[in-house]
Amino acid sequence: MTHYALAQAVTVAQDLEAKGFLGTVGKIAAATIIFFIAVGLIVGLILGFFIGRAAGRRQGSGS
Question: Which helix (H) or strand (E) segment is 44 a member of?
Answer without folding.
Answer: helix 2-62
